Amino acid sequence: MRQRIKGLPGLVLCWAVLVVGAAGVSGANAAAPDPKASVQAATDTLLAKLVEVKPLYMEDPAVFFAEIDRSLAAFVDFEGFSRSVMAKYYRRATAEEKVLFIQTFRKGLIETYAKALVEFENETIVVLDPSIDPQRPERASIGLEIHGANSKIYLVEYSLILVDNEWLLRNVVIEGINIGLQFRSQFAAYMRTYKNNIGDVIANWSVDAGS
Questions:
Q1: pLDDT tens digit sequence for 25-34
Q2: pLDDT over threshold 60, residue 65
Q3: Full residue range of the structural domain in which residue 200 is found
């Protein structure tokens, strides 16, 4: 299935497209949704919202970011993602620090990738068939081919987890770069820089998927 979206100058923009790929079909008694259909439905939802709120980016950026956040809220497992980023340090964190990092991590992601979304130009996205481990049917991986304006094809793969009958995003690999591991390494480096003070790490955290 193909979808037209706007621009793709680099890895961050690729990732901006990917975060829409984790929507599911709610309802405890419903059959597990198809990951591929969920990806397409989520993409359509976000792109429709983008058309609606894009003028707000310059006029009222706070409202723009809030609208994008609202569109992505049901698609991304921010808690699970941030927990994997903290890795071994998660157990050291207090309950308050865990909540604060989820909020900080989420805000950074939303603002970074919402800014990227406004730069998109018409390109072609091909959603590939998903791969589901029969031994772990609650996990799925699905590939994406993003055909850029320069005729380059960006290869993307992301990991989903089925939670309450919804496919939620847990990790992304873009052109061989594991974004989850990038963030995890960043968190560990911050811990060294700030002498293992998790509060200072959170206070100084910034999202940089390209580092």
A1: 333 335 678 8
A2: yes
A3: 2-204
Q: Is residue 151 part of a domain?
A: yes
Q: What is the per-residue pLDDT for 198? A: 97
* Average pLDDT, rounded, for the chain: 79
pLDDT-derived band at 166 (thresholds 50, 70, 90) equals confident
Residue 181 token pair: 């591991």
CA-to-CA distance for 200 and 155, rounded, in angstroms?
A: 36
Distant-in-sequence, close-in-space partners of 119: CB < 8 Å, separation ≥ 6: 6, 7, 9, 13
Distance between terminal CA atoms of the chain?
Answer: 32
Q: Is residue 210 part of a domain?
A: no
Q: How confident is the model over 183-201, as a mean pLDDT?
A: 96
Number of domains in the chain: 1
Confidence band of 123 (pLDDT split at 50, 70, 90): low
Instruction: Please state the separation of Cα 166 from the chain's center in Å.
Output: 15
Q: Which residues touch 148 (CB under 8 Å, ≥6 apart)?
A: 8, 123, 154
Reported as type and span, the H/E element at residue 93 is none
Outline where the chain has alpha helix (H): 11-18, 35-53, 56-59, 61-72, 78-86, 95-117, 179-193, 198-204
Give me the CATH number covering residue 183: 3.10.450.710
